[in-house]
Here is the input.
Amino acid sequence: MNVVVVESPAKAKTINKYLGPGYKVLASFGHVRDLPAKDGSVLPDQDFEMLWEVDKDSAKRVKDIADAMKSSDSLFLATDPDREGEAISWHVLDLLNKRKVIGKKPVKRVVFNAITKKAVLDAMDNPRDIDVSLVDAYLARRALDYLVGFNLSPVLWRKLPGARSAGRVQSVALRLVCDRESEIERFVAEEYWNLSADLKTPRGEEFQARLVSADGKRLNRNSVTNGEQAGSLKALLDSASFSADTVEAKPVKRNPSPPFTTSTLQQAASSKLGFSASRTMQVAQKLYEGIDIGGETVGLITYMRTDGVQMAPEAIDASRRAIADQFGERYLPEKARFYSTKAKNAQEAHEAIRPTDFNRSPDKVRRHLDGDQLRLYDLIWKRGIASQMASAEIERTTVEISAKGADGRVAGLRATGSVIRFDGFIAAYTDQKEDGEQSDDGDEDGRLPEINAGEKLAKEKINSTQHFTEPPPRYSEASLIKKMEELGIGRPSTYAATLATLRDRDYVTIDKRKLIPQAKGRLVTAFLENFFKRYVEYDFTADLEEKLDQVSAGDLNWKDVLRNFWNDFFAQIEDTKELRVTDVLDALNEALAPLVFPKREDGSDPRVCQVCGTGQLSLKLGKYGAFVGCSNYPDCNYTRQLSTEGGSEAEALGNEPKALGKDPLTDEEITLRSGRFGPYVQRGDGKEAKRSSLPKGWKVEDIDHEKALALLNLPRDVGKHPESGKMISAGLGRYGPFVLHDGTYANLESIEDVFSIGLNRAVTVIAEKQANGGKRGGRTAAAALKALGDHPDGGAITVRDGRYGPYVNWGKVNATLPKGKDPQTVTVEEALALIAEKAGKGGGGKKAPAKKPAAAKKTTAAAKKKPAAKKPAAKAKKS
Here is the structure.
């Protein structure tokens, strides 16, 4: 019997069927150990020794593998075909060796790019050893990320309250988003005019030509800069006669794009399907691991974490056969197409993402897939088969037209158009779809009517339109991934997690698929650019990635990379100990001037306090982050929330209340105000005045007397419960909208529900909450969704369902799960990291592993201890 180790249980079941009874396939469930989320897991003073820890669930899985090995003949490590997969195999083997269950039994590493019977059996026939260079690259990357995160984040917590974390790749990605926002703020729109003519051929067919020259000068898009100049040119064209000077029809070819890589798949899925990067990878993972088709689990695509753009020779042959069968010989190029990657730091030679079987078209698997799976598979299948199809043949026509004005002035116009003479690879995008979806390379110009050189053209209309240049667009997930890949920042397998972290930290938000940096994110970026500039430079980060690639190729020692990085980084961390908060604020005031001091409509100095008229406004740091306050405090208590919209809402309100009307019952004035924590409405004055913050999503400009009154009258009575006879009320609390009955709280989906929910639905919501573990006479009990095992410092870790979403619980520490994270997929490693971060910021409860920021601990001259070089906690398990 042979033991085979894979990563996921879904793959284990399928592969066991392929291999038969002579094999036992077990799943590691991803990584079996990791660096504990505590200070001292990487020891620079001890040659970067790394102290690994196995959580309770992983320990059980390793034991199962070890027990199976006792009666096995050999071990096959069949984890994923990337660096992480290589590392998991190395971890498993190291743990089994420490358990002394390997002995002289042969150990082989096998990799397959697709979960099909042929791919798996071929891999088993061609085993290799673990690639030590790939493991070294993993170790270097893991140590670097740990050293940056566990030393830089505490600096942020001390010097910039409200900031949550920094990371080697995360912070550079955030800088890209923030730099683009700064470009937009600095942008000054410029006026320009476009002129064109609607013309008609002698045969009565209409077309449009644009002005490209006048009075002997070439005109580009921005040449005509004012209405006077545009009016002069329009007068010329209005009085002119038109004739076609030359007509040139030029054949051109369009070639297909290569098959998808991880990043190009994420980009295409974002722009075409509206998928986030993480959603794309979730769906692709399922397509890779297998779909039940006719009672058999079949992997539909190859491995989805890759930089490679080339397909395997057998896949190219299969695609060419499918092209001939489905589209005809005309669509098959004489020779197969070969692609090479243009990525700055392309990973080892992995195959591109492609269908495992080109004859399995989207229509054939439609009934076996859900909506998202079908749409992503359709994208991958079309891109894959199109990549081996013939070029599209296009005829592009350019007509040069002269215009002679009545006053002798001369202008030139140009009309362009193109016609697809042979669709070639475009057929893959059109024949398979009823809506006639075009190629992902873009549409062609419109078709021109027949125009002959020398013939006169009739003027129908002269168009003169005013435009203004626009600022560069904000990044979308797709365009940010593309930019990071171009710069060589990060790895394709990390892009989805990086973007998710930026959202979860509230550093960016997504609005209409655009990434908008929040004030917190811009503060962090400005701080890092001023005090850790080297570590958020694009070239530095890309150069570090290149060194890691050299490690994976065996050309560089991984510990040399760590030493070179750590010496300078540690010195920079030490320098920040003398940094005063006032120094930080002065630097941020200058770096973020457009955000902190937005221009005022009256042209007055935006740094002068509007309330007292003499104080200077400046950033202030409080328990909950940054805000703007007056230098004359406490004599002047003006404060303003820092807003990503330049503080426009708060600036407009300032400390001056906006009257909205009177309460019809109490006759008290209702006002809209701005406080340190944002805008709110208030009824009356003094300490007894009723106040209510604006719910999330409500804008200041939309608040009127009716909405303010509705907020201030919360909670409202919904009606008496038919069984208990006690009142059910609806309100807005710290954790969002709710209904309350006899001590049982139940969440509502939106603030609008608070005002509209009726008695019947309220009774149902309360009953559902009680059925799920709600308690009478107190707050609702949080239901345990999953037990993760014991914490290294004692006590159970569980995943629970709370009032404002799922969270991880350990003792009195509750750490909210990142947005979109499935509670059932949380690992112990992820839970420990969340608990450590929460506890490190004063989350309460027991002392969690990350008790203090590493760099903040006192050092002695003799020891010269370095921030990440502390001894691990006594209860940490070494493995």
